[in-house]
Amino acid sequence: MLDHLAYEAPKPKVIAGATGDWELVIGLEVHAQVASKAKLFSGASTTFGAEPNSNVAFVDAAMPGMLPVINEGCVALAVKTGLGLKAEINLFSAFDRKNYFYPDLPQGYQISQLYHPIVGEGEVIVDMGPGVARRVRIERIHLEQDAGKSIHDMDPHMSFVDLNRTGVALMEIVSRPDIRGPEEAAAYVGKLRQILRYLGTCDGNMQNGNLRADVNVSVCRPGDYEKYQETQDFSHLGTRCEIKNMNSMRFIQQAIEYEARRQIAILEDGGSVDQETRLFDPDKGETRTMRSKEEAHDYRYFPCPDLLPLEIEQGWVDDIAATLPELPDEKKARFVNDFGMTEYDADVLTAEAENAAYFEAVAEGRDGKLAANWVINELFGRLKREDHGITESPVNPAQLGGILDLIAKGDISGKIAKDLFEIVYTEGGDPAEIVEARGMKQVTDTGAIETAVEQVIADNPAQVEKAKQNPKLAGWFVGQVMKATGGKANPKAVNEIVAAKLGL
Amino acid sequence: MSIDIDTARKVAHLARIAVDEADLPALAGELSQILTFMEQLNEVDVEGVEPMTSVTPMRLKRRDDVVTDGGYQDQILSNAPDAREGFFAVPKVVE
């Protein structure tokens, strides 16, 4: 089985400065909410949009004496994610406290995994077009608690705090600085989201904040990055700034673009970039300093005394590995190789696991290319017009397959098939029965077609003369015959008979 | 390692503990003593000794991914100095 189609690395983005060219170096920390029912250390629900402070257990509210008990389901989903990113799974991991004060963090610390994360090094192949992809190394994935939510606009003098999200399990997926441009960064988040959704370990809903990213950006001169890759020595790279908490791919691109130009302007002015945390303001399209230097991060990490190390068994990991679905890269490679479709079409069909499953149901025992064509152009196109997803499709795979069968048998032409599709889409029903009941069947009876052709020739002697001079005009006759037969004549048969009768 | 007054002040601030300026020298002295004791412990040769996480061989307790708790907003908010419309209400904090 082929893991991935062959690819070449894309060129890094280059920004021309006043003193020469600059390149970007980007690493991301993606926070993905684990798709569990209960929280990481409590039995409270993770459901989004509940009454404020109703999905909160006493542990989450940090009531005195309450102790965390780990949710094994969250651990399994983190392991599954690691396996999906071809990463090493650490059978020994441990939890640490990251201490800071904020009203939406009642414990005064976040339980995280600094020293011994559950997942080690892996990779994500980020597709940047047919035959072009960036391999981004994953440094680690650790499990940690989410914080609550502060709302600042409900009262002029107060902030309102909802702890429903407090303690929900997050996977922090940390990449190496292998990303070389704003588009690559957005594509990386997109690819990660796709893999997580295939795995079912995170729903990837960015609007609800279930997937959000911190982006580290620095700039360097051409050639510096290659020196870093050779030596893994960060001193070849520029000072980085971290842009916090972005939940839109468009904002990620805009923020990186702005931040790179800001850093280049500082450096070309003879200044130096301060390592700091920044926030992106989507209204102004700029990044700005988030915290003052005096309050520089001092999280005073230490092992969480409430939790023993998390030790898992290889057999348990193997059981999880056995449940892994076919992942996007493999599926795409299989679609290209087995169905002979383009990489572009395979990308479209594998974007969501549901799309791919629908296509495979249609393609089963039929012409794969034709099936791909119909699913992408007719079905997806039609669904998109109404802003529907595949799960809301009024046409099921058996119905679409039925239409393709009618085309393959020569019962209907491609043009009639589109009309038939529209009928099935809006009214439902069995395609073969509709064709029968409404007399949409293609006329392949050559006798009937011959009669129609002869009629058109007899009615248009002048055109016949012209066609004998210019054989291209035969198309006009074909059109007339199709019109006369209500589009139901087999176009191939009409072409042949017209040519024969005109003596071309 | 010894803790000076500035470090003591910073540690107090990070822990959000209000310490009078006059109490800082004594506090710095106590913190220094604790660290000195730690340094003494560091002299013990632990080469090849596995870190001990528990005195008895225990396995981290786990639970299933099932919702078993929550649904008591009134109790969660009952100790709050100020709560409105189901939320904790705190003095405005905006980054």
Structure description:
The complex is a heterodimer of chains A (504) and B (95). Chain A is an alpha+beta fold. Chain A folds into 3 domains: 12-321, no CATH class; 328-437, no CATH class; 446-502, Arc Repressor Mutant, subunit A (Orthogonal Bundle). Chain A has helices spanning 72-84, 182-199, 224-231, 249-268, 314-321, 328-339, 343-350, 353-363, 368-385, 397-408, 414-427, 431-437, 446-459, 461-469, 474-484, 491-502, and strands at residues 14-17, 20-33, 70-71, 92-93, 96-99, 109-112, 122-127, 133-145, 149-151, 158-162, 169-175, 211-220, 241-246, 277-281, 286-289, 302-303, 310-311. In chain A, strands 1, 2, 7, 8, 11, 12, 13, 14 and 15 form a 9-stranded mixed β-sheet that branches. In chain A, strands 6-5-16 form a 3-stranded antiparallel β-sheet, with no helix packed on it. Chain A has a two-stranded antiparallel sheet with strand order 4-17. In chain A, helix 13 crosses helix 15. The radius of gyration of chain A is 30 Å and the shape is elongated. Helices cover 36% and strands 9% of the residues of chain B. In chain B, helix 1 (5-14) crosses helix 2 (24-42). Chain B is flat and about 55 Å long. Chain B starts with a helix and ends with a strand.
SSE arrangement:
The complex is a heterodimer of chains A (504) and B (95).
Chain A (H helix, E strand, L loop, with lengths): L13 E4 L2 E14 L36 E2 H13 L7 E2 L2 E4 L9 E4 L9 E6 L5 E13 L3 E3 L6 E5 L6 E7 L6 H18 L11 E10 L3 H8 L9 E6 L2 H20 L8 E5 L4 E4 L12 E2 L6 E2 L2 H8 L6 H12 L3 H8 L2 H11 L4 H18 L11 H12 L5 H14 L3 H7 L8 H14 L1 H9 L4 H11 L6 H12 L2
Chain B lengths: L4 H10 L9 H19 L19 E2 L9 H5 L5 E2 L2 E5 L4
Helix pairs in contact in B: 1-2
Summed up:
By secondary structure, chain A is an alpha+beta fold. Chain A has 16 helices and 17 strands. With 95 residues, chain B is an alpha+beta fold.
